[in-house]
Design a protein that fits this description.
Blueprint (H helix, E strand, L loop, with lengths): L1 H43 L6 H12 L2 E6 L4 E4 L11 H8 L4 E3 L5 E8 L2 E8 L2 H50 L14 H35 L4 E5 L5 E4 L2 H6 L9 H4 L3 H13 L3 E5 L8 E7 L5 E7 L1 H37 L6 H32 L7 E4 H18 L4 E3 L6 E4 L1 H18 L4 E8 L2 E8 L21 H7 L5 H11 L4 E5 L5 E8 L8 H8 L3
Parallel strand pairs: 12-14
Antiparallel strand pairs: 1-2, 1-5, 3-4, 4-5, 6-7, 6-10, 8-9, 9-10, 11-13, 14-15, 15-17, 16-17
Helix pairs in contact: 1-4, 9-10, 10-14, 11-12, 12-14
């Protein structure tokens, strides 16, 4: 405000000086012109000889300098000097060119007015010495007015600035309290004005933030309560794989004290768990695996999933008892199968030996022996399948993965099974075939294809169609029959062990109910998937996929998928 007033006063001083001087000069010129008119009437009728005394008389009466010039610019009479100039001056030339002109002396001290006076030109000159004094008086008045305005402006601006500074300091203190987490802070502005409007808006914002923060705190407490009440151990990690939060179950489940901020790799050394967390953090993919090295003597099912902000959450479910029961079941099946193989072999051998003696056996005895031999052979196949499944699930049946052309696998399986198809008078045809190499164990995949071909021969009809085609980074194998098909409610369960769509017909055909279950475990061990498609009275199609050799990952994940139970 002070600077604005100073600038305004300076501009006003400059403007009023120019305007006032012009006004004073104009008033003096107007006064001299009014005085010159009656004098010009007298001068115009006088002779040159009468001019000097007449000029001095009029000069004394009008208190101004009086001069008379001829039309040629010759000075004829001067009230201030008796010396006359024969040569016209610049001012005289101006008067001759412009009658009634207003001129000013070179030193700026005198102002002249010229008017025609008959055969002469009359000039009256008045002093300008009073103008600077008048201007100084006006400037002095303006200076005092400016100083008074400055004092008032300083006082008012100081009061306003102090009030504004106090209100602004309240807002700054309010902002600092909010930054420190005190959401109950308020400005409490009661006055009017733009700053008060801003203060009230900030108070409303702070109230809303406080409400939302309390709701978030309440939601977090509820979530922590829920997570703490879980039987599973829950660990939240930040994008740098450092522990952000754990529930109460973690310390008891892991047997160690887990502190937030510690690196997860320093607490847990299990490679499966760390790999799952890495996939969740880097690839933003959820994964489920089993960890055996998290705590001594314990097995955990680990679920790792990405969260917003680049973090991840890990849930550890203790499945030690489940793993123990599964191992006991596998061991039991393997032991029973081993124990059954010897007596079954003996029964089959004795029955077949007795059936070879055609002379001493009657028809009924031979029928009984045939039934014994047939069921012993079926029991032998069942024990063989149980042993195979047990070895696959326990990881003993290690897959030897190597690149093999897909068409070659399909043709090998078809060639091995061609004799059976000829006996049953079933034609075998090839569908679309691709020569892309897949990463597979040839014996295991041929076993899967043979199993599917056997099922198609037993339960299908018409012809059998075998194909292999590329689908993105996988090769899809298919075995299609044109029989009665499978009802849709059975499609999801036919890969379960001992599950039969038509139990009576399956037993008559000699099936064990384990072939598709074995095929499922083998395909999943390769990193692929298997499924069935069917429509009643239009046949069934069994499909499975294998990864391309070029896209398969030569990492421990693929080795684990081939060596452990899926």
């Amino acid at each position: 405000m002070v600077v604005v007033l100073l600038l305004a006063a300076a501009m006003l001083d400059i403007a009023q000086q120019n305007i006032l001087r012009a006004s004073l000069v104009k008033d003096l010129a107007r006064s001299l012109t009014a005085t010159a008119q009656p004098i010009a009437l007298q001068i115009g009728s006088a002779t040159p000889a009468q001019l000097p005394p007449l000029v001095r008389e009029e000069a004394a009466r009008s208190a101004a300098e009086v001069r008379v010039y001829s039309r040629q610019g010759i000075l004829l009479a001067d009230s201030q000097s008796s010396t006359l100039s024969a040569a016209p001056s610049r001012d005289v030339e101006q008067m001759l060119a412009h009658p009634r002109a207003v001129t000013q002396s070179r030193d700026g001290a005198m102002l002249g007015v010229a008017v025609p006076a008959g055969a002469y030109i009359l000039e009256l000159r008045g002093p300008l010495h009073h103008i600077p004094g008048t201007m100084r008086a006006v400037r002095s008045s303006l200076l005092w007015a400016t100083l008074l305005a400055l004092l008032l402006a300083i006082l008012v601006s100081s009061l306003m600035a102090d009030r504004f500074a106090r209100r602004l300091a309240q807002i700054v203190a309010f902002a600092h309290r909010l930054a420190e987490g005190d959401f109950s802070a308020r400005i409490g502005e009661e006055s009017a004005g733009d700053l008060a409007t801003v203060a009230r808006a900030l108070d409303a914002t702070a109230a809303r933030v406080e409400t939302v923060f309390r709701q978030l705190q309440e939601s977090r407490r509820e979530m922590e309560t829920v997570l703490d009440s879980m039987e599973e151990a829950v660990i939240a990690v930040d994008p740098n794989s450092r522990v952000h939060w754990v529930n109460r179950r973690v310390n008891s489940a892991l047997g160690v004290s887990v502190r937030p901020g510690a690196a997860l790799v320093q607490i847990i050394r299990d490679p499966e768990l760390l790999a799952a967390v890495e996939r969740a953090l880097r690839l933003r993919e959820a994964s489920v695996t089993r960890a055996h090295a998290v705590a001594p003597g314990k097995v955990f099912q680990v679920s790792a999933a990405p969260m917003l902000g680049g973090s991840a959450v890990v849930v550890l479910h203790d499945v030690t008892e489940v793993a123990r029961v599964e191992k006991t079941r596998r061991d039991f099946i393997a032991n029973v199968s081993h124990e059954l193989r010897t007596p079954l072999t003996s029964i089959s051998g004795y029955a077949e030996t007795m059936l070879e003696d055609r002379g001493t056996l009657d028809t009924q005895t031979r029928e009984f022996l045939s039934i014994i031999a047939r069921n012993a052979a079926r029991m032998t196949r069942l024990t063989d399948d149980l042993l195979t499944l047990a070895r696959i699930e326990s990881g003993e049946n290690k897959l030897q993965l190597r690149p093999i052309p897909a068409a070659r696998l399909a043709r090998e399986a078809a060639a091995l099974f061609s004799g059976t198809l000829l006996d049953r008078n079933l034609p075998l045809e090839y569908g679309p075939m691709c020569d892309d190499a897949v990463l597979a164990d040839s014996d295991a995949i041929v076993q899967v294809l043979s199993n599917l071909l056997e099922n198609a021969a037993k339960y299908g009809g018409g012809k059998i169609l075998v194909g292999a085609r590329r689908v993105q980074n996988m090769v899809q194998f298919s075995v299609q029959d044109f029989g009665g098909g499978i009802p849709s409610e059975h499609l999801e369960r036919i890969f379960e062990r001992f599950y039969r769509v038509d139990k009576g017909r399956s037993r008559e055909s000699g099936g064990t109910g384990l072939g598709l279950s074995i095929a499922k475990h083998i395909i999943r061990g390769h990193g692929g998937s298997i499924w069935a498609e069917s429509e009643l009275n239009h046949g069934s199609t069994f499909c499975f996929t294998l990864p391309l050799a070029a896209s398969a990952e030569p990492s421990s994940d693929l080795e684990n998928s081939a060596n452990i139970a899926v």
